[in-house]
Model the fold of this input.
Amino acid sequence: MMVADHTSPTDHPNEAISAIDLWDDALLAARLIAVDPTGLKGVVLKAKAGPVRDRWLSYFSSLLPEGTPLRRLPAGITDDRLYGGIDLSATLKSGKPVRLKGLLAEADQGFLVAPMAERLSLDHASRLSGALDFGEARLERDGLSAVDCASFGLIALDEGEGESFGETAESLPPALSERLAFFLSLDSFSIRDAVEYAFGAEEVAEARAMLCTVDAGEAAIETLCGLALKLGVFSIRAPVLALKAARAHAALSGRCRIAEDDIIAAVRLVLAPRATMWPAPEEDYEEESVEAEPDRSDEQRDGTNERPDSDTVGPIDDLVLEAVKVGLPPGLLAAIKAHSERARGKGERGKQGSDQFSNTHGRPLSARRGDLRAGRKLDVIATLRKAAPFQALRAREKGVDGQKPSTQGRRRLYVRPEDFQITRFKDRKETATIFAVDASGSTAIARLGEAKGAVELLLSESYARRDHVALISFRGEKADLLLSPTRSLVRAKRALAALPGGGGTPLASALSTSIGIVEDAERRGRTPTFVLLTDGSANIALDGSAGRKHAFDDALGVARQFGALGTKALIVDISKRKSAKAQEIASAMNGLYVPLPHINAEALSSAVRALA
Amino acid sequence: MTYPFSAIVGQDAMKNALLMAAIDPSIGGVLIFGDRGTGKSTAVRALASLLPKMDVIEGCPYQCAPDGKKCEQCQGLTKYKTRKAAVPVVDLPLGATEDRVVGALDIEKALASGEKAFEPGLLAKANRGFLYIDEVNLLEDHLVDVLLDVAASGINVVEREGLSLSHPARFVLVGSGNPEEGELRPQLLDRFGLSVDVETPKDLPSRIEVVRRRDLYENDPESFVAKYKRKDAAVRRKVLDGRKLLPNITVPDDVLALASNICMMLGTDGLRGELTLMRAARAYAALSGAETVTDTHLKAIAPSALSHRLRRNPLDETRAVVRVERALDDFMAAA
Done:
């Protein structure tokens, strides 16, 4: 029985789950993907680089049939390597465009390993998603046009900081992670738990052979779809992947029909890590269990063949859920519960990671004549185009010089330094505006409403400019990152609408969270602007303790750290009279201080514009 | 082997919008926005294998029709052979460069023989068909501008690398995306004729059906496609019949008046909304096999024709589709 146990971790039911069992699960997932890479699409492996991860990876590669491609995806790979570009030497030799195979095509029928997947740009993620969906890589660039087979499984190595499941400042773009069957976290293991296994390769080979003969069965499909809904997993890809996991599990166990064990494993490995809620909270469950029991048996006696309605937990589902619960990593249930509470009022989209954009693909300008220096990129196609008209002329010139005409005849290509064309990119620097809104009790509720209105106006303006917007709110004991930098107005509005008010003023914590977001934005090549709406009356210190003096000193300390970043900051004083404290914070941050006793959306907006 | 169009569970708004564009390409593009995993790409790919074959002039790089407007090259021909070709549904992959989209100097010919020849790009390939952009919101702005310009004019003008030519490029632009990953520039939204929101089905029976069909298809694509052959053929027939019907469809005056009133009440800017609304209503009537456009047709397609033209109010959480539907209900009740 789950909920009551969350208060003290010691008597958590999952305490019974040893690290060894969880490690077994991680290895099981490895076997399952090895059985059906193109169906299960891959795994998000949350783990720091280290011996545990290495052990998992080497176990995984030991399972694969000989000759299976296992290619590494370098961070920041360019499109011509991803899809295959011009082979420079072969092209110059033969006088016609010759193509190199791209990485996606090279991984066909095998695997692609992406280290530092949390840093993958949205552009890269979309390219990978496209290939995962249709098993092909389409190239249309630099005068080349091709479609390559590219059916592969993706091993995304997420090395991000933070909690084990989602909600980190940096995480894999959700558009990509939701296509992969498994989310594994190895961070809690020590190398002692990660026992080495050497077997499994034969099992996998046998399972691969019989995979397509495994019968799914109606009941398995219905159970998995029903459970996905009950766990708050709305994407239809999840039950599809769960069904494939169940099928691979059955094949591994030598069964030609999906059995209950297979469903339990699939729910534990595919659906549970995606869950945004857990059915039948404990408190209700205890009360219900006495009275609801007869109802349920009535239903059974009626013998209705109706499919279980999405609102009631059918008996099979119950059994599966109980069995699944036993095998979950400790902390996952608590995380799900916490998430479902946070998600209330946010709509029912469920878990969304942070959106990521990159500015590495500035608008490519037309290539321009130039010399080859370090850091410059030769535009091969443009260079060849430039050289093309002069070929006949140059060939004749060579002849006049008294040189023997080349034995390869006209195949020889004459490219001169003046033909060199250099690729240029227009660097469009993106901006990120980070709002930190004081939602504490000292900011009266009415003022919070005004602040919301002002922020909404700013949001829609940044939206029109295609800026990124992040939203931090602080109240009670700590600051919350309500919205990591995004360009989605939909999500920003949703986060803002759900913003509650009241409680203490943890200004120091808000500033330290903001520093993290500002630094992250800079790492991504964006120019951050910070807007703080507060009255400056901090009363919660960094360590969560109450007390004005201590809290304000903390806040001032963090504000100085912030000032050292050199980020443009606007401090909007929203107290009724000018607050000396807010002024002090502003000067520590090297920011612009704007008292706005009556928050006026227009005035605020023009202040921000003046800052940028 | 692509997933059959008729095997897609639900998503009627999306399917109808695509079929309407197949009946009357002048409706303008179709924008499909919505949740992940709702089969947006699948539907567009399925459309390709569903559409009836068309007559093209043999050897023409732009698939010119023997009985339609021809490209410069085909205009000079006195005798030509024709062949049946599939309606092109061209994918514009992410990372495509401008030279491949609009076409460029054929380097191979230029290098080998010094000949200045044009190598047609994706816009040429898509002539008389569909051009599909998945994640249209991630496409670089300058490419979107080129595409919208060509889609509106139907002609691709190439002025680059010493080439100066133009060729027909009439196609239906289909864009899809997920609003959670960044929205389309507002000024681009209303360049699309129709816009549909797709959502993951929330009810258990349809979800089970989606998963079941997906499973059957992936396990044995051949027999799955064979199973839906007749249903696909029925949809194809609807498109063909609709095309025949379209020129003769009449729009009664009261329906015309209703259309302008709806646009006025919703405050959609410009004439484009009204025009698209009428075209879409006619195409929808044709798709449903009706000879006269009725209020019901208008009401059915108004959300997809108008929802993306409403002025945005950042403080209003209500989805645009709901606002259109509400306005319609109010209006019908008053009338």
About this structure: Residues 229-245 of chain B form the longest helix (17 residues). The first strand of chain B starts at residue 29 and ends at 34.
